[in-house]
Amino acid sequence: MTAVLYPVAANASAALSAPQGRAARASEAVLLAGAAVRFVSESVGPGFATRSAALDAFAGPLDDERPGKGRAVAAEDRYCELRELAEAAAPKPGKSKPPAPVYRDGRRWAAPPPPPATVWRLSISYWKIDAPAGEATPPAGAQGPLSTGQPTAADIQALRERLSQPMRSPKPQKALDIGLFEVPLPEAPNILIPDE
């Protein structure tokens, strides 16, 4: 299976138009950026009233399943997607109060307000560069490779230390109260029955 190669850039527009490179893993992104990175998904570009209009505007990075347009993006290039988002509504002045019951025509409540207008926007997932260049640090909790060339005595010693450390969970595992094929009765949760 091919891993997605996400762009490495300082912001979403740069990730879409001119990334510094592309990487599948955080350690690769750190090497490309020369700085700390974090994985983000952000919206970029204008909003479109219809999905079709958005697909026409962003034809390159998206799959297009419409008849006559059939286009599929390679597995490693699937870092963009279209999302339908609620359009930002203007805030109403004053505090909003809950609706009062009306008791009319056999209904207790007034008709609900219409759903908010939506727009289609392009969302891009990428490695965002956090720190200025020159401070290449791996992400928190990540352990990079021991070396890039021939192993030295220090590398071998570091590997032995890593292997000798026990693998421990941050907190102890809870005891299992229920078996794998047992479920509680809905009407009596204290009774367990076998599930097939």
Characterization of this structure:
The structure is a single chain. Helices cover 17% and strands 22% of the residues. A hairpin with a 7-residue loop joins β6 and β7. It has a domain of 117 residues. The strands form two sheets. Strands 1, 2, 3, 4 and 5 form a five-stranded mixed sheet that branches. Strands 6-7 form a two-stranded antiparallel ribbon. The chain is extended. The chain is an alpha+beta fold and 196 residues long.
- Strand percentage lies at 15-25%
- The percent of residues in helical segments reads 10-25%
Major beta sheet summary: 5 strands, mixed
- Say how many strands there are: 7
For the termini, the CA-CA separation is 34 Å
- What sort of overall outline do the alpha carbons produce when their principal axes are compared? extended
Can you tell me the residue ranges where pLDDT is under 50 for at least 5 consecutive residues?
Answer: 133-142
* Average of pLDDT: 78
Write the H/E string, N to C.
Answer: EHEHEHEEHEE
Global Rg: 26 Å
Pairing-aware structural class of the strands and helices?
alpha+beta
* SS element count, helices: 4
